[in-house]
Structures are given as structure tokens and as C-alpha cells.
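Ticket reopened. Same input as before:
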Amino acid sequence: MAGDEVSRDEPGPEVHVLAPDRFAGLAAARVAELVTESIATRGSCRLALSGGSTPAPVYRALGRRDDVDWGAVEVFWSDERFVSPDDPESNFRLADESLLEAVRPRRVEPMPVELGTGEAASAYETALGDEPLDVVLLGLGADGHTASLFPGSPALDETDALVAVTRAPTPPRVRLTLTLRALNEARVVLFLVTGAAKADRVAETLGGAAAGPRLPAARVRPAAGRLVWLVDEAASSRIRRTESA
Ligand code: 6PG
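Engineering reply: fixed in the latest deploy. New output:
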């Protein structure tokens, strides 16, 4: 993977720092590589897409590639807002417009927010089934949230359910999200983070801040899976780099 490797004192996630003008293309290449590895190993890839604004150019670059066997890919979401699918705030709409109009996955499984907060979580658990997700894409909020797991959210303490309803501090407030159990059972989790506004949280999350409750994003540590962070130079500007030997 091109980019400036960030060496670390203790074993931790794989972190790649990418030039901002190459971030979307290189991130798309890494997603394609991980999806293809899953297909080669298991015959299919269960891919969960992140929401927010960061992934859109990555999804567009991914949709332009011709090296992904989308007929073997099942698309899920890491989280969704309780809005209609044509709402500008919808994570389904984001993916539909930037990726799914260009590719034809074997299965597309949006989070069923139309069922309402009483039924959506259990319905998505059923849709997910018993298999872990193969590749999960995540972003990082300026408060250290990821998916729709916000600091202080009771869903952070959920150890059984794979999907939960949460409340965001900003509109749209009511969200559906994969829980830490679902994220940490994934085979690969890939964070996509850009921009100086995230630099402090990236450093805090990757640096393993000793004091205080760990940020939600810092609690994403796949038990048997791989954790990969792709960050641009601005978002990585506060990461402590150990001097290269
Ligand atoms: C969402 C996302 C959320 C997002 C972060 C970063 O539904 O909003 O799942 O976790 O990844 O808030 O958002 P940006 O990419 O817009 O900075």
C-alpha cells in the first residue's frame, strides 16, 4: 500500500497515511483488495458500508474499478439514520448514488429503518444472519464516534445484540447501528478518515489515551480480525511517530 507507514510502539492497527489527492483512489484500491481476498478465501464477501461524507469519493472510485466480482458481494450498512431512503441524510442514498448505480452486487441489504425503532434492529439481525461480516468500512466523528456509536451511548455496553437503536447528539438524532459486538466479530475493519478536524481524535484513538473512557472508535478492535486505518496527511498530523530506525 503506497503511503507513509506509521510505526507504533505496541502491536496495534495497521495505519497508512495517504496524500489527500490520492486518498480516494488508494482507499478504493484497498477496499477492492480486501473484498477480493474475501471472495478468494470464502467465495463471497459480506461488505458493510459506512455513512457520512468521507466515503463518497472512495465509493465513486470503487465503482469505476473493474477488478471486483460484485456478483459475489453482499452489501450491508454499518449504520443508518431513521429517514427515508431519498433523504439527503440517508446513508443508503449516499451509497446508492456514489457506488450502487455503477455496480451490481449479488445482494443489497439496506437497514430497514422504515420498520421503525421497535422492529428495525431485530429485523436487521435476522438479515445479517450468523456469519460475521467480512469487510466493514467505518468513519470517525470529531467526537470519536464511529458508525452511530456515540460517546456515552448505552449501545456501547451491548454485548449480545448485533444491531441497536441509538440517539445522536446532532440531527438526524435517531439512528440504527451495528454494535461493538458486530464490529469486533468482523474479519476486517477499515477506517477511512480525512481532514484536520479529525486529527486529535485519530491520535487519541490510535494512541490509546490512558485517561478517561475510551472513545467508541477506540473500542473497535476485531478480536480475530484485522484493523486497518487509512488516514490522509491532515488527519494523521497529531499521530506520534516513533523515529524510524
Ligand atoms: C454516519 C456515519 C458516521 C460517520 C462519521 C464521520 O452515519 O454519519 O456512519 O459514523 O462515519 O460521523 O462522518 P464524515 O465522514 O462525514 O466526517
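The CA atoms of residues 18 and 232 lie 5 Å apart. The longest helix spans residues 23-42. Please confirm and we'll close it.
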